[in-house]
Amino acid sequence: MHTAAEYGIIGVPPQAGRKPAEAAAMPRTDAGRRPGRSPEARLAVRRQIYLFRGGGRKTQPDAAGKGKPMPENYRIQMERVLEENGARRPGLLLHSCCGPCSSAVLEALCPHFEVTVDYYNPNIDTAEEYARRAAEQARFAAAAPFAAGTQVLVAPYEPQAFYAAVKGLEHIPEGGARCFACYALRLRHAAALAKQLSCEYFCTTLSVSPHKNAAKLNELGCAIAEEYGVKWLPSDFKKADGFRRSTALSAEYGMYRQDYCGCVFSKHEAEARRAARAPAL
To answer: Cα–Cα distance between 145 and 164 in angstroms, integer?
Structure first.
């Protein structure tokens, strides 16, 4: 886990008398916040885990007439959190995989949270690609009016962390256990940084993609929240046309978009798809 001082600071909210490096190194606090969790808050988290794992779910009949759990609607769960918070804007650490995916997510979250972006993606295959995506993330956060004041923290590039996390899973197709290990790696990093910066919540942009498993992301996020003592924001940002909105914003701001998640395995699969679509000579 990196300290805030190790990050490249690209966007810093205007704070009177505070320089960018000082803003990153100084944990964020809200007036009246007490350290730790109350017994009621811990009970609420355990209840959330229970629900995420299927406890108390309604069922719907399948073709054989047997009941099966109805899928969770994480968008509705997020809206309930926003309603409970009211006019309060707590701190939220947002893990971002790239600028385009963050676009609609920041638009949705910034009115309700004091957002800090955590750009930590050791899965990306080259240092050049990592830097290019980081620069695009920073450019968007600086240009979009709704993201004004959003701080972007860029973690050092460390691909060895990704390869260690997915060791033995290299042969698994995209969307399976290898991706889940990568989710967990980045979510755990986000939770640790959220705790360090005294953010009340953390979440990720990953669910805005139709290729990412929102149920698994929320399952992991909720479990990691319990581990680190930071609240997970239930979310599925692709819902309510979130993915479509992200593509529209990407076009509006002329953003660099990719057709693979960033890892070498996904890149090879994307290249194979392009080759299969290419007309025979």
So the answer is: 39
- Nearest residue to 207 via CA among 183, 233, 188, 235: 235
Residues 13 and 115: their CA atoms lie apart, in Å, by: 10
Answer whether 139's CB lies under 8 Å from 100's CB: no
Say if residues 114 and 28 touch (Cβ distance below 8 Å): yes
The token pair that represents 110 in the structure block? 């910034």
Confidence class for position 277, pLDDT limits 50, 70, 90: confident
The pLDDT score that the predictor gives to residue 170 is: 85
d(CA 112, CA 124): 30
Pairing label, strands 114-119, 201-204:
unpaired
Ranges of H-type helices in the chain: 20-25, 39-52, 74-85, 99-109, 127-143, 159-165, 177-196, 214-228, 242-252, 264-277
pLDDT tens, 121-167? 999 999 999 999 999 999 999 999 999 999 999 999 999 999 999 99
Task: Give per-residue burial for 43-73: e unless 16+ CB within 10 Å, then b.
Answer: eebeebbebbeeeeeeeeeeeeeeeeeeebe
Between 58-67, 218-227, 230-239, 258-267, the lowest mean confidence (pLDDT) is in 58-67
- Amino acid sitting at position 101: C
Look-up of token digits 């009016």: 145
Place of tokens 């978009």: 257
Where do we find the tokens 């949705």?
108
Closest alpha carbon to 134 in 114, 112, 157: 157
Going by their DSSP bridges, the two strands 91-95 and 201-204 should be labelled as parallel
Q: What is the SS3 assignment for 166? A: coil
Contact between 243 and 209 under an 8 Å Cβ cutoff? The reply is yes
Considering the entire predicted model, what is its pTM?
0.75
